[in-house]
Every structure is written in C-alpha cells, then in structure tokens.
Amino acid sequence: MLHELTDVVMQGKRVGRRLGTPTANLPYPTGEDAPPDGIYVARVILPQQGGRVVNGVLSQGKHPTLPEGVPTVEVHLFDFDESLYGQKVIVQYLKYLRPEKTFASVELMRAQIARDISAARAYFAATSSYPE
C-alpha cells in the first residue's frame, strides 16, 4: 500500500456523476507524507458498514480539465450506488497509475477515465482484493 487516508465523505462538484462515474469526495491530503497528485488504484473500507471493502479508482489533485473549486480526492467505487455523504471512510492507495493531465475535451477525459477504470479492474483481477 502506498498511502492511507481516513476522512469523512463530503459533497463534491458532481462532475463524476455527470460523466457517468460518480465519486466519493474527500478533503485533499496535506503534510509531508501526502502522496503525489495523480490517478491511483484504490480500496475503500467502510467502517460504518462493518468494515465492508469496495474497490475503485482514485483521482487526487486539481483536476485540471475541469478545475472548479479546491483540489480534492475523488474515488469512483466499482459496482457501488449508495450515498456515503458524512460517513468516515478509509482510503488505501494501492498503485499509482499516472499523473494528472489536462484534456482537450471532456470526451477525451471520459475515454481516459474508462481506461483508468479498466486498468484498476485488471489490477484487482490479478491480485487479491485484501490488504497487501
């Protein structure tokens, strides 16, 4: 595991939802041990749901193609359609996929998100979905 972040899910800009990839949004990590901005394979533990584990893909940073607002952490959870607003979650950064980048269009960004999701799903298919 590269990093672990524990915080409360907050409402975001709802950009992920509009793009068809809803996200759980968390405050941007600060401090010397904060990981570099970018896209990661991630696992989210839901303590308020008995420690349930959900896999996903995470984007941390300024989100330069749609840079409204402050930097955040956004986690798209696979096969998950529940509200987590106000819940404390534990986010584990498992594998760095790529740096943030600016896309020429929302469609190009959406295509890259689909590739990132495929890469994260392939990671979980090839490894155990439990802590390393």
Structure description:
The chain has 132 residues and is of the alpha+beta class. The chain has one domain (3-126): Elongation Factor Tu (Ef-tu), domain 3. It contains 2 helices and 6 strands, in the order βαβββββα. Strands 1-6-3-4-5-2 form a 6-stranded antiparallel beta sheet. The longest helix has 21 residues, at 106-126. The N and C termini lie close together (7 Å).
SSE inventory with pairings:
Elements: E1 3-8, H1 15-19, E2 24-27, E3 38-46, E4 52-61, E5 72-77, E6 88-98, H2 106-126
Antiparallel strand pairs: 1-6, 2-5, 3-4, 3-6, 4-5
Shape: globular
**Strand order within the widest sheet?**
1-6-3-4-5-2
**DSSP, total strands:** 6
Average pLDDT reading: 90
CATH superfamily membership: Riboflavin kinase-like
Task: Work out the helicity level.
Answer: 10-25%
How much is the radius of gyration in Å? 14 Å
Multimeric status of the protein = single chain
Total domain modules: 1
Question: Pairing-aware structural class of the strands and helices?
Answer: alpha+beta
CATH topology: Elongation Factor Tu (Ef-tu), domain 3
CATH class: Mainly Beta
Second-tier CATH architecture: Beta Barrel
